[in-house]
Each structure stands twice: as structure tokens, then as C-alpha cells.
């Protein structure tokens, strides 16, 4: 059967089970937008290609499926760059399809030409330039395979306009042939046995759970391992929801703005079992003083992560689900042999004591000013359990991660590695498009919101409603916090203002409902109102205290031992005498 | 920092050289030499890369190279356990009495004279890098007009070819159940 390259593209997307794509048409990609009209694939017309890219990411985060973004050549592809870099850093499976100028003029500085495969080489897992229509199906097949298997990531497929128009005989490949791409998924049993033995010998173990556990769909296996082994769990920013926060073994988020218990438990541990985590600097603080007495079991599907920052005593390359299931079985066997779980009452009591003494804390005076943490707590308590929470980057992101209580995986979506401001609104759009059965709430900053709020138009036009709660402190809050703490309060270029733009009017202009709360008394009513609206998007303007800072905090480059728990005195509270480690 | 020689078997696809080189440049490593050519397998090329880098960052780059979809195999050569060669073409001033002296040196180094003019001899020399360095130093006395070197190529000594070695051992050491290939 004869098809054009463009028809082959949509047949291939259908072949991959794609139901939804995000994109914007333009000159070079034009031929692809014609067969779209006859395709079962739904196209969500975004207002900016960056928005399309983040929406594809949000879709992938929330569903576990590959997100797809389509853009034209030149500026279209270039506008996707930030979202591809973001997806690379956070291992999000995304396939980006870009139009390219016709083959004969590639390299001639043609109108809207950019070497997008060259530009995106270091920020994609892989990319392709398709040279003939006959290669479209194979390339799309390979792109989806690479994006979704092993350590997931973004793949870009660049297709010149003449290739989209060229005729070819349709054929869908049965399998992919990539001789250089065969991820290792099965963990080595001998290594797993050694790891279980190391856990049995440990007096102060901590499971250091990263985003890989969510990507591998290994939350059930993790729950069994943690509960049967009585092993405390920290979940990184990428892993929020991998383990229920309400569980007594849950220590919460470690890292620069993590909880005191999670940070200190890792510092004092004699064993860290890293599961799909990468010892990122935001988790370890100063690397040389990170968890100085801990042995390391490092499980990751990417061998390049093992030993990259911290050398591992027991490296295990493999998919987290496979390895954790094996580790659980092996640990159970060794526990039975030993007559039960090793006695770690002292360690668990110590952790509980820290949790009691150093919870996330803030003070909401009854007469104001309105505190950001209070808004998030009320939003959390008034929202049902089914919400997917999306965040941008900055103080509001940390507060959202700290104060929300996650119960299951894929209910937390954010930009972790790249730290992309403006991620929340388009990612929430993508998450809601992928999970229409769930309520989606973007907790955003006023700085972030202004970078990508145009996607509210997409939300209205396409009928994809979600709530955006702007934690409006009138500042680029995290930068302001650093200037306050480390630059002697010399505030430079961080003031944005509470009322320009007027977020309520802006919301209304986009066809959304705009709400505002400026006083603690108003919060509940506003949240309840927002939750009652399900047929269109809602924007809440929470005008909060500009001076509120995000704590605990480990200053960049400092040791995690020097964690600052709160604004009082800004001194480390960690008393070495109280720690169980010599 | 030591010089390391790495052989990389790659699919012969557009952009693969950029991908490989990009991994080095992104980390600020300088590639000393790079040689690329076809192999006995259709569709596969072999790169030989000589890079000055410490052991630990090299390990990281090697792992990253393994992740490239178009990379099939990587072999880091142990010094002494590989045959390493380079080809060089060099134009030397060799007028008058110098001609005989340059030709004597060429004979000692088993270099061939491939072009002659009144004032110039062009030599072709092959060998280990240190041999070529020694030759160049002697020729320097006469005046080197132009120099072109291919960069180092290498094969590990012994029975086995690149496709049967290395990565398996490394993957097993890193804790893989069974080695299935490269890529992540």
C-alpha cells in the first residue's frame, strides 16, 4: 500500500498506541498535519512549543507512557530544547517529532532551518534524521523503543518536508534491530545475595529511593522490601509517592530542603541501599562528608550512574522492579534463617525521636500574613486522595513536596534535575490530558507561572481543566532567600510584584476561573470553591508572605551535617553528641 | 594524567563521530588523536581514540560511550597488551648533502621515500608512536616543511577480536545478571 511519509508517521504513531500528542504546526511540518485529520490520534494544540514539550513530559510522568510533542523546523524545534533537556535529566520518556527544511536545502540556511539533531544531541537519549519516507516507520518504532526502555529519556525524530511528502510502501516492522542498544535489566543474583547479607548485618540501614523506582513500576516491591525488612525509607524529590508518606517507616524527602530526619538518617546510616537514585548534589550536599559511615548498595539500570558520585560497595545493574523483588525474596530467606529481622529498635527509636522533634514547621499567625505552607496544607487537606500534584521550580516546589502527603506513585510531577521554571502549567495540562479521571493541581510560583501561563488557553480550548495554585509572594522567592541568607540581604532583580499581572483577571482572560486569597480566613472558602469547579481550569492567587523562607536547608556545597532547621539563629542544630555514631 | 587508547566499534551512521567526540568535549577532555575506518563487518566502523585523562573520569566516559545507541563495543587497551601503530607522511628539507643523510635516517627507521624534488624528500613512515617521535626529532635538524599523521590505531594482542571481549567482564563486575549488550 502506497502512503506518504506523513501518512506513515501517523500510522506509526497509531502502531505505537499513541492516543494523544501535543504540538504546534508550521511550514516544514505542514504535510504531517493533513493526515492527522484522518488519524485516531488526538492533537492538543499548545500555545508554545516549550509548553507542548512539558505537556508531553507531564503526560509521561502521570501515565508512564511515552509523551509525544510535535513542532516545526527551526524555531519550533529550538523551543522544544528546554523540555528535552528537562526530560533527559529526569529520565522522562518523550518522543519529539520535528519538521525539517526539504533535504536539498538542508545546510543552506534555508528559512526556518536549524540543525536540530545537532542541537539536541547532548540533551536527548538519541535522535534521528529521517532521510527517506521508507525509513519513517522503522525510525518511529526505534524511537519509542529507545525512549521507553532501559533508563527512559527523550528521543527526537527530525523529518525533512520532502520526506513527509515522498511516497513509499507501507510496512510496519515486527521488531527493532538496534545492535548497540540492549539495556541490562536483570540484576545479578550473587550481588543481590551479598546486598541482603549486608542489610542483615546493618544496624542503621536506610533505603534511599529515587525516581528509578517509579519508572520501573516497583512501588509494590519496594513496599514489601521495606515493611518485611523493617527498613526506613527516604524518597527523593523524584521519588515522592513511591512509598506512602503516612507509613511509619517513611522518613520523607532528603536533600537540600529535605526533612531533618531524612537528611540526618542518611548521614548517620551504616548502610544506604540506593534504589534508582543517583547521588545527586542536591541530595548529598558536600559529597566528601555525605553519609560518611555508610556502606553503599547501589541499584540502577544505568551502569554509568554506579560509582559516578559515590563508589558502591555492592553495585547492582538492573531494573529496580526485578532487583527489588529478588532482594526482597533473598532478604526474607536470610531473615528466616536468622530467626527474624535483626533488632534495630534503637535506630528506629532514634528516627522517631528526630521526627517528633524536627517536623516541617511554620507559624501561621491568625491575623496574617498568609503563609505559603498554610495554603498548601489546606489545599492538601481539602482535596481528596485522588489528586495529581504538579510543581514548578523554587520555594513552592519544595513546600509542595514537603507538605503534601503522597500515597501512591505517579501522583507527583515536577522538574527535578534541570530545575525548569515554568514547568508546572504545561505539565499539569499533560498530566490531566493523560489522566482525565484524576484531579490535577499545579502548585506554582508567581515567577514560574508567568513563564508558561499561555497554556491556560490550551486548557480552555481543549477542555482539559486543572487547578493552578499560585503561591504568589511577589518575588523570585528562592533567589530572594539566597540573597537574604548569603548576600547580606542585597536583593537584586528578584521583585515581581503581587498585582502585575492581576492573576484573577489573567485567568478570566484565558477563560478560567480566577480566585484570590490574601488572608488565612479566606483560604478554605477559596479552595472549596476551586475544588467545586470541574468544567474549566481555576487559578488561585494566594498572596503570601514575601519573607517566608524554605527550611530546613543545607546551604549549597555544605555538609548535610550542617543542616539549618529554621530561621532562628540560622545555626546548625545537629549535636554530634546525640548521634548514635561515633 | 595518562594517555589511554580506546577502540570503539560503531555503527556507520551519520552523526556517530559527533556523538562520540561530544562525550569527550562535554567533559573538557582533549582528544590526542582519533582514527576512523571501516571494518570487516559491513556497516560497522572502528574508531581508535587516544585521550589524556585520569582513570576515574575515563571510566565515566567509557560508560557514557557504552550508552550511545550507535556504539557496539568498547575496548580500553592495556598498555603493552596491544599492538599500536601510526602512519606518518613528512616533507623534509633535503637539498645538497642533506639528501643522503636524510635517506640514511629513513633507512634506519624503515621509512620509504615517496616523493622527491630538488630540495625536498617526502617520507612515509609507520610504527609505534615513540618510533615516529624519534624519527621526527632527527628530521627536525633538517627542517620539517609539512607533516600529516593518521593518529594511532590499535589491536589487542591475542586470539580474540573486539566483539568477544571486554564489556561482558565489566558488566558482570558491575553486577548484571547476564550481559545482554550495551546501551541504557
Please provide a brief summary of the model.
Chain A is an alpha/beta fold.
Can you tell me about this structure?
Chain A has 582 residues and is an alpha/beta fold. Chain A has three domains: 2-169, Rossmann fold, CATH 3.40.50; 189-357, Rossmann fold (3-Layer(aba) Sandwich), CATH 3.40.50.1220; 372-543, Thiamin diphosphate (ThDP)-binding fold, Pyr/PP domains (Rossmann fold), CATH 3.40.50.970. In chain A, 37% of the residues lie in helices and 16% in strands. In chain A, strands 3-2-4-5-7-6 form a six-stranded parallel sheet, sandwiched between helices. In chain A, helix 1 (5-15) packs parallel to helix 6. Chain B is α+β, with helices and mostly antiparallel strands. Chain B has two domains: 2-81 and 157-173, Alpha-Beta Plaits (2-Layer Sandwich); 82-149, 2-Layer Sandwich (Alpha-Beta Plaits), CATH 3.30.70. Chain B has five helices and nine strands. Classes of the chains: A alpha/beta (582), B alpha+beta (184). The A-B interface holds A 117-118, 121-122, 125-126, 129, 146, 150-151, 178-189, 191, 301-304, 306-308, 314-318 and B 10-11, 14-15, 18-19, 22, 26, 59-60, 63-64, 66-72, 171-172, 174-184.
How many extended strands of chain B? 9
Percent range for helical residues of chain A? Answer: 25-40%
Radius of gyration based on Cα positions of chain B? 20 Å
Sheet/helix structural class of chain A: alpha/beta
Question: Count of helices of chain B?
Answer: 5
In whole angstroms, how far apart are the ends of chain B?
A: 29 Å
Number of domains of chain A: 3
Largest sheet of chain A: 6 strands, parallel
Strands ordered across the widest β-sheet of chain A: 3-2-4-5-7-6
The CATH homologous superfamily of the largest domain in chain B corresponds to ACT domain
> Could you state the oligomeric state of the chains shown?
heterodimer
Amino acid at each position: 500500500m502506497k502512503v506518504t511519509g506523513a501518512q506513515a508517521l501517523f500510522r506509526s504513531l497509531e502502531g505505537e498506541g499513541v492516543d494523544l500528542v501535543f504540538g504546534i504546526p508550521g511550514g516544514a511540518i505542514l504535510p504531517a498535519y493533513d493526515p492527522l485529520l484522518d488519524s485516531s490520534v488526538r492533537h492538543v494544540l499548545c500555545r508554545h512549543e516549550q509548553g507542548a514539550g512539558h505537556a508531553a513530559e507531564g503526560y509521561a510522568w502521570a501515565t508512564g507512557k511515552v509523551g509525544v510533542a510535535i513542532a516545526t523546523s527551526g524555531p519550533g524545534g529550538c523551543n522544544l530544547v528546554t523540555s528535552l533537556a528537562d526530560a533527559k535529566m529526569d529520565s522522562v520518556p518523550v518522543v519529539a517529532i520535528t519538521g525539517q527544511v526539504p533535504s536539498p536545502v538542508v545546510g543552506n540556511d534555508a528559512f526556518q532551518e536549524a540543525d536540530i539533531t545537532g542541537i539536541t544531541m547532548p540533551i536527548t537519549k538519541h535522535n534521528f534524521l529521517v532521510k527517506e519516507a521508507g525509513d519513517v516507520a522503522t525510525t518511529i518504532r526505534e524511537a519509542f523503543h529507545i525512549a521507553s526502555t532501559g533508563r527512559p529519556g527523550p528521543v527526537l525524530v527530525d523529518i525533512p518536508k520532502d520526506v513527509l511528502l515522498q511516497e513509499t510502501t507501507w510496512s510496519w516492522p515486527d521488531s527493532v534491530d538496534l545492535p548497540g542498544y540492549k539495556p541490562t535489566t536483570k540484576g545479578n543474583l550473587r550481588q543481590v545475595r551479598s546486598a541482603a547479607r549486608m542489610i542483615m548485618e546493618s544496624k542503621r540501614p536506610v533505603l534511599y529511593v529515587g525516581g528509578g523506582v517509579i519508572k520501573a513500576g516497583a512501588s509494590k516491591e519496594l513496599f514489601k522490601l521495606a515493611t518485611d525488612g523493617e527498613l526506613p525509607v527516604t524518597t527523593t524529590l523524584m521519588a515522592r509517592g513511591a512509598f506512602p508518606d503516612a507509613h511509619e517507616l517513611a522518613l520523607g524527602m532528603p536533600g537540600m530542603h529535605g526533612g531533618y530526619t531524612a537528611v540526618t538518617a542518611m548521614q548517620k546510616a551504616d548502610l544506604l541501599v540506593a534504589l534508582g537514585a543517583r547521588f545527586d548534589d542536591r541530595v548529598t550536599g558536600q559529597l566528601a562528608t555525605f553519609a560518611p559511615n555508610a556502606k553503599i548498595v547501589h541499584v540502577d539500570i544505568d551502569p554509568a550512574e554506579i560509582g559516578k558520585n559515590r563508589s558502591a560497595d555492592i553495585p547492582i545493574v538492573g531494573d529496580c522492579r526485578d532487583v527489588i523483588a529478588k532482594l526482597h525474596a533473598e532478604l526474607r530467606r536470610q531473615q528466616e534463617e536468622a530467626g527474624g529481622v535483626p533488632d534495630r529498635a534503637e535506630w528506629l527509636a532514634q528516627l522517631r525521636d528526630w521526627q517528633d522533634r524536627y517536623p516541617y514547621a511554620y507559624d501561621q499567625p491568625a491575623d496574617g500574613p498568609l503563609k505559603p505552607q498554610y495554603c498548601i496544607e489546606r489545599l492538601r487537606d481539602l482535596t481528596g486522595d485522588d489528586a495529581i500534584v504538579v510543581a514548578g521550580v523554587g520555594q513552592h516546589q519544595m513546600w509542595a513536596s514537603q507538605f503534601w502527603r503522597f500515597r501512591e506513585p505517579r501522583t507527583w510531577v515536577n522538574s527535578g534535575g534541570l530545575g525548569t521554571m515554568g514547568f508546572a502549567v504545561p505539565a499539569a495540562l499533560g498530566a490531566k490530558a493523560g489522566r482525565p479521571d484524576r484531579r490535577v493541581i499545579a502548585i506554582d510560583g508567581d515567577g514560574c507561572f508567568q513563564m508558561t501561563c499561555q497554556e491556560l488557553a490550551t486548557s480552555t480550548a481543549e477542555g482539559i481543566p486543572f487547578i493552578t495554585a499560585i503561591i504568589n509572594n511577589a518575588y523570585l522567592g528562592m533567589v530572594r532567600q539566597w540573597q537574604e541568607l548569603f548576600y547580606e540581604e542585597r536583593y537584586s532583580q528578584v521583585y515581581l510584584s503581587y498585582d502585575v499581572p492581576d492573576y484573577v483577571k489573567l485567568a478570566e482572560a484565558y477563560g478560567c476561573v480566577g480566585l484570590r486569597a490574601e488572608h488565612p480566613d479566606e483560604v478554605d472558602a477559596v479552595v472549596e470553591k476551586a475544588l467545586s469547579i470541574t468544567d474549566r481550569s481555576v487559578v488561585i492567587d494566594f498572596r503570601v508572605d514575601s519573607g517566608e523562607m524554605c527550611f530546613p536547608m543545607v546551604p549549597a556545597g555544605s555538609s548535610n551535617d550542617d543542616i539549618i532547621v529554621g530561621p532562628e539563629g540560622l545555626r546548625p542544630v545537629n549535636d554530634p553528641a546525640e548521634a548514635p555514631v561515633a | 594524567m595518562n594517555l589511554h587508547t580506546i577502540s570503539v566499534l560503531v555503527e556507520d551512521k551519520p552523526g556517530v563521530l559527533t556523538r562520540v567526540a561530544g562525550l569527550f568535549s562535554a567533559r573538557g577532555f582533549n582528544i590526542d588523536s582519533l582514527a576512523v575506518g571501516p571494518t570487516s563487518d559491513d556497516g560497522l566502523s572502528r574508531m581508535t581514540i587516544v585521550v589524556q585523562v585520569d582513570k576515574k573520569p575515563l571510566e565515566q566516559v567509557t560508560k557514557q560511550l557504552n550508552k550511545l545507541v550507535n556504539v557496539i563495543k568498547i575496548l580500553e587497551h592495556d598498555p603493552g597488551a596491544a599492538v599500536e601503530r601510526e602512519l606518518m607522511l613528512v616533507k623534509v628539507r633535503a637539498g645538497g648533502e642533506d639528501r643522503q643523510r636524510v635517506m640514511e635516517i629513513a633507512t634506519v627507521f624503515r621509512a620509504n621515500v615517496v616523493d622527491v624534488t630538488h630540495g625536498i624528500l617526502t617520507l612515509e613512515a609507520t610504527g609505534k608512536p615513540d618510533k615516529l617521535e624519534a624519527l621526527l626529532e632527527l628530521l627536525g635538524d633538517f627542517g620539517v616543511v609539512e607533516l600529516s599523521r593518521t593518529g594511532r590505531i590499535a589491536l589487542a594482542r591475542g586470539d580474540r577480536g573486539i566483539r568477544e571481549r571486554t564489556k561482558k567482564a565489566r558488566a558482570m563486575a558491575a553486577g548484571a545478571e547476564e550481559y545482554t549488550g550495551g546501551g541504557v
